Here is the input.
Amino acid sequence: MVNPEISAFLQERIDANDFPSAVYLVAEGGRICYQDALGYAVLEAKPFRATNDTVFDLASVTKVLVTGLIAARLIERRQLSLDDDLAKLLPKIVGSDRSAITIRQLLTHTSGLIGWVPLYLLVDHPSKIVEAVLMTDRSYPNRSVIYSDPGFILLGKIIERLTERTLDSLFHEEIGGPLDLAFNPLRDILLTSIAASENGNQHERRVCEELGFLRAVPPEQADRYFRSDLIWGEVHDGNAYFMGGVAGHAGLFGTAEAVLKIAQQFLPGYTSLLKAGTCELFTTNFTPGMNEHRSFGFQLASSPDSTAGQLMSPQSFGHLGFTGTSLWIDPVKERVFILLTNRTHNHTPPFVNINSVRRRFHDLAIAALDQN
Here is the structure.
């Protein structure tokens, strides 16, 4: 099941200090073809080697495995529509300049909402998150893709209001419970099973300083917004952490095999959670002519500079996570490519950009599958 070329390549990148560990999984036709775990999931505390069962902070892959999948289910049930706007969904909160934002725009990152903002510096309690998102800057919608964490945070909150359930309970009951995927994993599993992340929030603190968000925060209060200890077993993302580890954009933890079980739900021949026709949403380009090709939650392989590599079908769709995770799905060949690393661990910012590693991983895996 181990592919020698893929494993050797990823070990080279570990030796080059791109990341301390990597777990990969390649599946075709619902069957795992290649799988391996390399390096150390934890280095800064007592060292632990990565295994195929190591749990990773999936970061923004949460956007598709949780928020996107649940949104698709709600659309099937006619509880939600792509053309529903905030005027309908949040009539008591949204202002006039935000009221026309639609579910379609949130899912395709074309709402014009800002890419990232430390919401924990704008409000003093997670209950005010929606208002905080709606206060953020906005450019002209539908003119370009602006990848937006606040957009998916808002989408997650809309789902909670529609279902009258928290996102984690909704996901656990309908999707993730039997599949070993969960928010806040320390409730259920040993810390030694989890890959560690950054030592404190050095990256976010640096970005906040550069963008001027700390100017209004007294120095003696700054430390309360940023963790200083090793982030291990709790979500790395600062906004998700502020929200209790449960958010529409980040917060999900899981193993490579657990990610595969969810990934299969996006393929019409294997899904048990969606209608086969609904899966067309994930291959449809909703942003033709824009700077990125976006489908329902995912980036398409046809997008300029995608991490799909040179050999994946143009209809393929995928998503990345800041911590060093990625998922790509080729619906034409019914293939799934999962690469989980913890690139923020045992590193100081700026972290290594591993997009070239992702592309090479995909090319090696596809070449091996095609040969066999």
Summary: Residues 4-55+194-199+228-236+253-371 form a domain with the Beta-lactamase fold (CATH 3.40.710.10). The chain has a mean pLDDT of 94. The first strand starts at residue 21 and ends at 28.
